[in-house]
């Protein structure tokens, strides 16, 4: 009995010292008797230049789920705000309000094919209203070789309390700061907090990782030394999010500073065939998109395929012919026009 009581006492005592590492939505602001945030861990590696006071490059990367009309999710007539049930609304996860358009070829091994100024980012598309309309382009930043890069990653947290595991290829980074500021936060609020001196960075022995979380309504700051030349993707590791564009690319160094491409290395590209006109599927799509018959709306996009479809729809709507009979009429008319009858 004495042994049992002693054991129970020891377990209770141990509980006083149990802490949870990397708790969801908790950073260094959390109660440190219960939680250990990433920057509070100590790396066994000694100090290196990633931890110097002023990084060479600083990039703000903010993200959230946005209530925009993503053309891949919301077709005409069914815009985001026209979907009455919130359960059926599909929000778009983006970084800096940009959906990554993945190039159709390998950037590293086919770098000679990259068009000049292909990459876009906040600086290159300032004139676009990406906060309110869907922006999609090859999202990327060029980093000088050997620069120490600081990424200030912000989860704005306005949509819901979801988290994103963010992963960088090509490097391990130091996690120097992590804090939750509230249910949500803006980029300007984080910038002001930093300029006012309220963001504390662990520049002594910050832990080293290649994937990190960000508290919802907070920030995580990581540092890497860009000493591995190439094209490296940074993306959310929830695969669906990465596939719909929650990603970007860091070009580290100039093309001539990257390892040579092996001779005969396989290449890839965009081999999609040209899509042919399919009047029936086009009609169904068109009718779904246009609840009211509108010649003006229709003629604005006229093409050969559209014209054939227009004729078929007109026949159906005006004299009530079935699709097959209308198609037959169309064929007869086409034969007649070819034969110049
Ligand atoms: Cu994600």
UniProtKB/TrEMBL annotation:
Stretches of the chain forming a coiled coil according to its record: none
A molecular function GO annotation: copper ion binding
Example GO biological process: iron ion transport
Keywords in alphabetical order: Copper, Metal-binding, Oxidoreductase
Record-linked InterPro entries: Cu-oxidase_C, Cu-oxidase_fam, Cu_oxidase_CS, Cu_oxidase_Cu_BS, Cupredoxin
Plastocyanin-like domain mapped to chain residues: 126-254
Keyword DNA damage belongs to the record: no
Pfam family, one: Cu-oxidase_2
Keyword field contains Transcription regulation: no
One CC-aspect GO term: plasma membrane
PANTHER family in alphabetical order: FI03373P-RELATED (PTHR11709:SF394), MULTI-COPPER OXIDASE (PTHR11709)
Protein name, per record: Laccase-5-like
Organism of provenance: Sitophilus oryzae
């Amino acid at each position: 009995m004495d042994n049992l009581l002693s054991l129970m006492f020891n377990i209770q005592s141990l509980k006083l010292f149990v802490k949870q590492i990397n708790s969801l939505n908790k950073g260094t602001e959390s109660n440190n008797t219960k939680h250990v945030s990433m920057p509070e861990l100590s790396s066994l590696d000694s100090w290196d230049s990633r931890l110097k006071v002023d990084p060479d490059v600083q990039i703000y990367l903010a993200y959230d789920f946005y209530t925009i009309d993503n053309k891949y999710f919301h077709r005409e007539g069914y815009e985001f705000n026209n979907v009455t049930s919130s359960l059926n609304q599909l929000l778009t996860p983006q970084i800096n309000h940009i959906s990554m358009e993945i190039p159709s070829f390998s950037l590293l091994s086919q770098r000679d094919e990259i068009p000049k100024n292909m990459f876009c980012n906040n600086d290159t598309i300032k004139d676009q209203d990406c906060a309110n309309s869907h922006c999609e382009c090859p999202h990327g930043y060029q980093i000088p070789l050997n620069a120490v890069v600081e990424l200030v990653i912000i989860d704005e947290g306005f949509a819901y309390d979801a988290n994103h595991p963010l992963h960088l290829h090509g490097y391990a980074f130091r996690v120097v700061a992590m804090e939750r500021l509230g249910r949500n936060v803006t980029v300007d609020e984080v910038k002001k907090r930093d300029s006012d001196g309220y963001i504390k960075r662990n520049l002594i022995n910050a832990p080293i990782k290649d994937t990190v979380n960000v508290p919802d309504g907070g920030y995580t700051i990581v540092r890497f030394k860009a000493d591995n030349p190439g094209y490296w993707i940074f993306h959310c590791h929830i695969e669906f999010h990465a596939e719909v564009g929650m990603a970007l690319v860091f070009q580290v160094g100039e093309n001539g500073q990257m390892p040579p491409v092996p001779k005969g290395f396989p290449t890839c590209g965009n081999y999609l065939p040209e899509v042919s006109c399919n009047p029936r599927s086009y009609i169904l799509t068109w009718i779904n998109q246009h609840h009211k018959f509108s010649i003006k709306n229709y003629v604005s996009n006229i093409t050969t395929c559209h014209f054939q479809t227009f004729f078929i729809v007109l026949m159906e709507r005006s004299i009530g012919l079935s699709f097959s009979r209308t198609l037959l009429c169309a064929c007869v008319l086409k034969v007649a026009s070819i034969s110049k009858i």
